[in-house]
Structures are given as structure tokens and as C-alpha cells.
Amino acid sequence: MVALGLTAVSLVGQYYRYCLGCRAFLGLVSKFNLDAERNYPTWFSSFLLLGCSFLLFVIAGRERAKGTRFARHWTLLAILFLGMSAEEVAGLHELMDSYIRHHPSVHLSGFLFFSWVIPASIIVTVVSLSYLRFLIHLPRRVRSLSLLAGAMYVGGALVMEMAAGKVFEVYGYDSFPYAVENAAEELLEMLGAIVFLRALLVYIETNGSGIETGPLGAKAAIDSLWGVQ
Q: Does this model's pTM top 0.85?
């Protein structure tokens, strides 16, 4: 509901901005713009990824304590999501995109206009292939939710970003069609993170992780994060 609400507010703000000529509206247009940085949607997305990272660290701690085969995979995922959470606020992919696109030897356009999708696609492919056995070993429901979450997040972050390059070339950055495309992109990313949060909670609840889900859940989670038995 929060993700859908933020998307709706952003689209209304962009409609007022581009179709009605109201560019500020008490400053709320920029504060809820899904394509802007360091505003309410950005922080919400960052906290979603941070929540995933926290649960992954909790699971990793328990898996290490039990000596399971894929404990390292959980830990690496936790670190990856922690980095994604920080990147969501810092916007490092934009710096990468600017560096690649303005390099003298690089001439990209169309779906590859936002050139950071090239190294990002390579990273996603490598991580996906290295986690195939990990995915197979997961309980069926957790695996299904994780695959759905990954498809939604990657679909938003990479596939929709490639489509955004084409929209950018046709309509330009300062346009309502580009704002709509970007809103769809960000919504998919938020929904992907939310579905993955659900997958992690299902794993914790059903896979015998030994994590308390009642009133003592917060304390138990923190103890697990620091390896306290």
C-alpha cells in the first residue's frame, strides 16, 4: 500500500508539473518524485533493501551456527543488499552511467542509452548463475517468492531502465511520458523488495531457523545477527 501510494502521489505531482504547469506545489512535487534522489520514495526504497539485508544477516547467523552448506551464500546476499540499500541513496549508478556514456570511445543510444545497465547486467548474470544451487535447495514457496521478487526487481532496475533510454530519446527527460515510465520502473523495484522481504519471513517461519517470531523477536534477531546463542 505504501509503495502504491508513493507511486500514485508521484504521478499526480508529475501530471501537475508537466500537464498543468505547476512545477512546485509547496515543494511536494520534488519530495515525492520517484525519479529524484534523497526524497521520501528514495528513503523508503532504501529501507526496504536494508530490511532485506537485516533479515539475511539474521538467517546467515543462524545458518552458520547450524553449520549448514549455504551459510556463506546467505552472508554474501546480506552484504549485497546492504550495498544496494546504500547505493539507492547515494546514486552511484548514475556516476557510473555518466562516466561510461561520456567516454570518448563509447557511443550508445536507444535501449543502451543509460549505459550502466551493461555492467549491471553482467553482475546480475554472474550472481544468478553462482546462486543456482542455492535457489534449488530453498523450500519451494521461498524459492517461488524469491524468483518472483528477482524478476520484478531486475525487470524494474534493468529492463525498464533500458526502455527508459528509448523514452528519453523520443520525449526527453523533462516530459510526462518519461515520468510515467520511471514511476513504473521504481514501483517494480519496490514491489520486488517487498516480495523478497516476504520470502525471507516465510523462510524464517517455516525452515526451522530457530528465530523467535513473537514478542521477543527483535531481541532474538539482534542476538542472531551478532552470533549470540
A: no
pLDDT of residue 35: 77
| 2 part of a folded domain | no
**Residue 160 falls inside a structural domain:** yes
How many C-beta atoms surround the C-beta of residue 219 within 10 A? Answer: 11
pLDDT greater than 80 at residue 153: yes
Contact predicate 172/22, CB 8 Å: no
| Residue whose C-alpha cell reads 548463475 in the numeric block | 129
The answer to the question of residue 40 being in a domain is no
Q: Is the dihedral of CA 108, 167, 193, 143 positive or negative?
A: negative
In which domain, by residue range, is 195 found?
48-224
16 close to 22: Cβ distance less than 8 angstroms: yes
Cell of 220: 532474538
Say which residue, 78 or 35, is predicted with more confidence.
78
Q: Which amino acid is at 3?
A: A
Alpha-carbon gap, residue 83 to 169, rounded angstroms: 30
Q: What is the 3-state secondary structure (H, E, C) of 114-179?
A: CCCHHHHHHHHHHHHHHCHHHHHHCCHHHHHHHHHHHHHHHHHHHHHHHHHHHHHHHHCCCCHHHH
DSSP state of 192: H
Q: Is the dihedral of CA 49, 81, 197, 153 positive or negative?
A: positive
* Segment 41-48 mean pLDDT: 92
